[in-house]
Design goal:
The chain has 18 helices and 24 strands. It is of the alpha+beta class. The strands form 6 sheets. A 7-stranded antiparallel β-sheet has the order 3-2-4-1-10-9-11. A 6-stranded antiparallel β-sheet has the order 5-6-7-8-12-13. It is elongated, with a radius of gyration of 22 Å. The relative contact order is 0.12.
């Protein structure tokens, strides 16, 4: 286990990410255009920057920029990305690193030609490895894990790129779902704990697709084959796919917060429909924390399935109470608190005629900092809601995450610094109930390689 001092030091010194990655090897396809569509399906995983690197087997081209996927990529830019191979990335990060230098994919030259990577995850030993590279004379152009990963691979021992990948990546600790691109091949790697999702699919019988979520594969007309195994190294070329190395997998690693918040409800994660897990969590939440109310309403969209489950179990009518604007992004993954605060009022509009003088159960997926839910409750009070019973479909988020969730100081976590009663008073609710960790695990069900629950109970995978 990692102790608290290690977690706090590392997380205070570098940006953390949980992003969307996409890759495609598809002869006779417009790979960049399909990657663009795949990134649109992964937009919920990051809204700060986006990028695509492509290859036509002769030349590697890159386009990346700040903003949403459809802001970065115009028709003209997509046409600059010719070829049958492409990788893409959509990113979020913490404050202070919202700059183009930190946008992905990362592309560098090497003795094997151009080498690009898209990365979802977070390295626990980033600071140590960065200092080692700087001492060796490397000049790092960004603050992100991905550049460090490529440089470690380039300088690693090995007679070929496969060996360099194995030897270079043996130095890193933490969460990594990686897609590498060369002029004529893709390489796919997942850490031995399988902390972040990575899915393999097929398209048009001859092509291969890799993505953070199954929905991204389906959005480009592909079909899911399987998950990339924890610790698996895959080469994709004209010959097909080949697993050329397999690290011994470790248990207890998959991030349970993927089921709570990150993944789309229609995604299949560890052979489990995310929507089903969220629905079940709401049902169990109603058993653990019943309430008397006129309606159950959700904080859309990630709280909706749990709210429906709560309504089904409790017998209280589910009612839309907050109408969500489809043109404002997720507030949790905005880079600054000020933007998160402004975004809430733009994002949600209460249905005052339904809510005035009513008692409600308000269901949300999680509470991390507590700022968003406080403003939502304030909006509902302004709309005339009489009583608000807040129910959270996950346990109190009390601990730092060094594997890819955007919190890096204990004082950011409301459940770490306040008791349940203090939280209730601070956010303005009439009652508050969290789903137990036992209940959340029951809702998710059995996961082959186990779950990382460190953000709830400090039990992190051993890295």
């Amino acid at each position: 286990m990692l102790d608290d001092s290690y977690l706090a030091t590392d997380c205070d010194n570098k940006p953390q990410e949980s992003c969307g990655v996409f890759g495609i090897f598809a002869p006779q396809e417009d790979a960049a255009r399909l990657t663009f569509y795949g990134l649109l399906a992964l937009q919920h995983r990051g809204q700060e920057s986006a990028g695509i690197v492509s290859s036509d087997f002769k030349q590697v081209n890159s386009v990346k920029g700040m903003g949403l996927v459809n802001q970065v990529f115009t028709e003209t830019k997509i046409k600059q990305l010719a070829g049958a191979l492409a990788i893409g990335h959509t990113r979020y990060s913490t404050a202070g690193s919202s700059v183009i230098e930190n946008a992905q994919p990362t592309l560098l030259d090497s003795s094997y030609g151009p080498l690009a990577v898209s990365h979802n995850g977070n390295l626990a030993n980033y600071t140590e490895l960065r200092q080692e590279l700087l001492k060796k004379g490397h000049c790092l152009n960004s603050q992100i894990d991905s550049e460090l990963i490529v440089r470690l691979v380039i300088e690693a021992h090995g007679r070929n790129l496969k060996q360099k990948l194995v030897n270079g990546l043996s130095q890193i600790k933490g969460a990594y779902s990686l897609i590498f691109l060369t002029k004529n091949k893709l390489y796919v790697v997942r850490d031995r704990w399988g902390i972040r999702p990575l899915i393999l699919g097929q398209i048009n019988g001859r092509g291969w697709v890799i993505a953070s979520e199954s929905t991204a594969i389906e959005s480009v007309g592909g079909h899911v084959i399987r998950e990339v195994k924890p610790g698996e190294f895959i080469e994709i070329s004209y010959k097909g796919i080949e697993t050329f190395h397999q690290l011994k997998s470790k248990s207890g690693g998959f991030c349970i917060f993927e089921y709570v918040y990150f993944s789309k409800p229609e995604s299949i994660v560890n052979n489990k429909l995310v929507y089903s897990a969220r629905l079940k969590s709401g049902q169990l939440l109603a058993r653990e924390h019943p309430a008397q109310a006129d309606y159950v309403i959700s904080v859309p969209d990630s709280g909706t399935a749990a709210a429906l489950g709560y309504a089904q179990e409790s017998g209280i009518i589910f009612q839309e109470g907050l109408i969500k604007s489809r043109y404002v992004g997720r507030t949790f993954i905005q880079p600054t608190q000020r933007i998160r605060d402004l975004g809430v009022r733009l994002k949600f509009s209460p249905l005052q005629r339904f809510l005035k003088n009513k008692s409600i159960v308000l269901v949300d997926d999680s509470v991390v900092r507590g700022t968003t839910i406080t403003q939502i409750i304030h909006l509902l009070r302004e709309a005339g809601v009489k009583n608000i019973h807040l129910r959270i479909a996950s346990p109190p988020f009390k601990n730092l995450c060094f594997l890819g969730i955007d919190v890096h100081r204990y004082d950011e976590l409301i459940a770490q610094t306040h008791t349940g009663q203090e939280i209730m008073q601070k956010i303005g609710a009439d009652s508050l109930g969290y789903l137990s960790l036992t209940g959340l695990k029951q809702a998710v069900g059995r996961v082959k390689h186990g779950l990382c629950t460190g953000c709830f109970n400090k039990k992190y995978p051993i890295v």
